[in-house]
């Protein structure tokens, strides 16, 4: 099979199409013919040599795919050849075929195009787990979603709205803020022009956000805590403004706030299975009834994988970039 592999740590030029042996299904595995693979920031980090795949995972990138079941292991009962599915992977999605545990496979939600469905698993699982399980967002509460224009943010805005929360989000520039508003955000903050702490406080009558979904990390730590309401929960999932930050603990104590963070990729299989099952139970109905839609910026062929990485790195994509075999 063809796959997009990394010849060594470095820039996008290290990506190329290679020929590999097709995967074999173990007892509880599903082999899927890939229709599309989502491109994630983690893939860029892996290519640059900063985020090695977990033990046992393929060493070519790709954390999510959509496609058609080709064959299943003898212990698989739910899936059969021909099923239209999406899947959450530990790696290896940039390939014509993948093998994945059956517990990390989801059906393509009703009404969603097979290719576009590749934009959903990583974002939906990450958002559900962090905003609802960890962040405990309740209807009527305010959530601040950083990077509302990104692959995670576009899904987070829609899920939070569908749950009955008020959504504030940050994005860069007038076109991207307008598109976040069209996705349902109540307050869109242009971080190039506005201070998000001031804007969130103004919108909430000084109270602050009950949950902050953060992908900025260190550089925004202090401001994120200052944007929290009493009892607020800051959930850090990314470090786009660095690994280290400074926090005035009096801001946290005064709010009785919580700062926490998670990673999805390296979770044990049983935790991933639970997150995938919860996502299918709670998010897939929102997708099927049209309240949550995948937002796809571009579909790019495997042969042009370098430009797919460059597009994500440029910060110009709105929503997800997909690779198609
Ligand atoms: N912990 C986990 O389990 C997990 C899972 C999935 C993803 N993640 C992380 O979540 C983050 C977002 O992923 P994604 O797929 O949504 O990426 P993405 O599609 O590239 O979106 C990120 C968005 O953040 C904004 N942004 C980037 N750098 C910024 C900066 N320095 N200051 C302010 N805004 C900035 C950009 O929008 P504007 O230019 O419009 O502001 C961009 O659209 C990544 O760091 C990724 O690694 C974590």
From TrEMBL:
Keywords, in A-Z order: NADP, Oxidoreductase
Domain Enoyl reductase (ER): 10-323
PANTHER family xref list: OS02G0805600 PROTEIN (PTHR48106:SF8), QUINONE OXIDOREDUCTASE PIG3-RELATED (PTHR48106)
Residues passing through the membrane, by range: none
Biological source species: Promicromonospora vindobonensis
Protein name listed in UniProt: NAD(P)H-quinone oxidoreductase
Taxonomic placement: Bacteria, Bacillati, Actinomycetota, Actinomycetes, Micrococcales
Pfam families: ADH_N (PF08240), ADH_zinc_N (PF00107)
Domain of life: Bacteria
Stretches for region Disordered: 1-20
SUPFAM superfamilies found in the cross-reference section: GroES-like (SSF50129), NAD(P)-binding Rossmann-fold domains (SSF51735)
Keyword Repeat carried by entry: no
InterPro entries given in the database record: ADH-like_C, ADH-like_N, ER, GroES-like_sf, NAD(P)-bd_dom_sf, Quin_OxRdtase/zeta-crystal_CS, Quinone_OxRdtase_PIG3
């Amino acid at each position: 099979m063809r796959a997009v592999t990394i010849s060594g740590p470095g820039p996008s030029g290290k990506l190329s199409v290679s020929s590999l042996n097709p995967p074999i299904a173990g007892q509880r595995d599903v082999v899927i013919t890939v229709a599309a693979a989502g491109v994630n920031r983690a893939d860029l980090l892996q290519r640059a040599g900063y985020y090695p795949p977990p033990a046992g995972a393929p060493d070519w990138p790709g954390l999510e795919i959509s496609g058609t079941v080709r064959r299943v292991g003898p212990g698989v009962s739910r899936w059969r050849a021909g099923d239209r599915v999406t899947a959450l992977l530990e790696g290896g999605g940039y390939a014509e075929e993948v093998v994945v545990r059956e517990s990390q496979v989801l059906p393509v939600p009703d009404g969603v195009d097979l290719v576009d469905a590749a934009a959903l698993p990583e974002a939906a699982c990450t958002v559900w787990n962090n905003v609802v399980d960890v962040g405990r967002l309740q209807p009527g509460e305010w959530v601040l979603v950083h990077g509302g224009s990104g692959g995670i943010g576009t899904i987070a805005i829609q899920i939070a709205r569908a749950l009955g929360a008020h959504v504030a989000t940050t994005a860069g520039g007038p076109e991207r803020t307008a598109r976040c508003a069209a996705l349902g955000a109540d307050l869109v903050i242009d971080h190039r022009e506005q201070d998000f702490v001031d804007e969130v406080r103004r919108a909430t009558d000084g109270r602050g956000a009950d949950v902050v979904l953060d992908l900025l990390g260190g550089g925004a730590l202090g401001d994120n805590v200052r944007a929290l309401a009493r009892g607020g929960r800051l959930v850090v999932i990314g470090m786009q403004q660095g690994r280290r930050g400074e926090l005035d603990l009096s801001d946290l104590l005064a709010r009785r706030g919580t700062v926490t963070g998670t990673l999805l990729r390296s979770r044990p299989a049983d935790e991933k299975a639970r997150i995938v099952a919860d996502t299918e139970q709670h998010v897939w109905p929102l997708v099927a009834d049209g309240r949550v839609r995948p937002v796809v910026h571009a579909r790019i062929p495997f042969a042009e994988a370098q430009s797919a990485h460059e597009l994500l790195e440029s910060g110009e994509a709105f929503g997800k970039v997909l690779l198609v075999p």
